Amino acid sequence: MIKCKLSDPSSTTNSGAKNMILKATGKINNTVSAAGHYIYPGYMIKGKKKNLMIEAGINILGPSYLKDLNRFFNNGDELDYILVTQSHYDHLGALSFLKRALPHVKTGAAPRVGKLMQKPSVIKTMNFLSDQLGDYFKDEIPVTEDNIQITPMAFDMALKEGDVIELGGISCHVYETPGHTRDHLSFFIPELSMLFPGEALGNPAGDGTEVKVEFVTSYSDYMASIEKLVQLNPDIIAMSHMYVYTEEDAHKHMDRTILATRAYRQLIEIYLDQAQGEIKDAVDLMVKVEYDQKGEILMERNAYIANLNAQVAAVHAAGQNC
Question: CA Rg, the chain, in Å?
Fold first, then answer.
C-alpha cells in the first residue's frame, strides 16, 4: 500500500538497451500496456482471441482505466477478463466501477477475495481508505464521476494454483503466492516471459533499485512465494506499483527482494530481542527509531504502524516455529 507522493521515475533506466527499469505507464511491449497511473497501473494484455487486464488499482482511477481500455482495445467491449492479485483496496478498488461499465467482463481472484467482497464491513473499510487516498491525490487525479464507490460484487472465477487462461497465442498462468496477504496470487505469461507478481516480490522503493518488504500475514509463506517466482526466471516483471523491470534488472530485483526480506527479518528480530519478545514493545521501539528518529520511511504513520504490527507478529511467529 503506497500513500505518499513519489518522485517521477520516468527517466529511470540502467545503461544498456536491455537493462532497464521502466515507468509503469503506456506501452510496455507490443502485447502489454499500462492503464491509469504509474503508482497503480492496470496492465492491459492483448491475445489473438481474448483480452485481459491485471489489477484494478484504486477507485478514483476507474474512469482513467476505462478510457485507456477503450483506447487500447479500440473498444472496452473487447476486454474479456479482469484479474486481481489480492484483496487490498488499492488492487481492486476500481473493479466495481469497471464491472458496472463493462458487465460482460469476467472477473477473477482467489476464492477468499470473493468472500470478502460480499461483506459490508469490508466494503465500508475499503471505501473509507479509498476516500482518504482520494483526498491525498485529489489534485493529481481529480474525480470525474460520482459512481466510483466500491460495492459488493461476486467474482466470475475463483482462481487457484495451476489455472490457465488462454488468450490465443499467449496464456496466463495462475500461481498462489501468499505471505503479503493470505489470498495473494501472481500471474505469469510464459510466451512473453512476463511476471505480474502483485506484492509477492515486495514493492519498488526510491529509484527502483531498492525494495520495500511486504510480508504481512506470514514470513515463511512470503519467502516460499518469492522462491516459487524465482524459479519462473522471468525476463519482465510488471510490478503492481511504479515500475516494470526488464532483462537483467528483472533478475536483480528478485535477488534484492530476497536479501531485503532476510535483512528486514533480522532487523525486526533485533527489536524483539530488545523488547524481550514482546510484540507491542518491539513495535513501539521500531516506530520511535525507524520512523520518528530516522525519518526515512515514506509512508503515512498510522498505515506504517498497522503494517509493522503485522510484520513483527509474523516474524515472532516464524521464530516460534523454528
Answer: 19
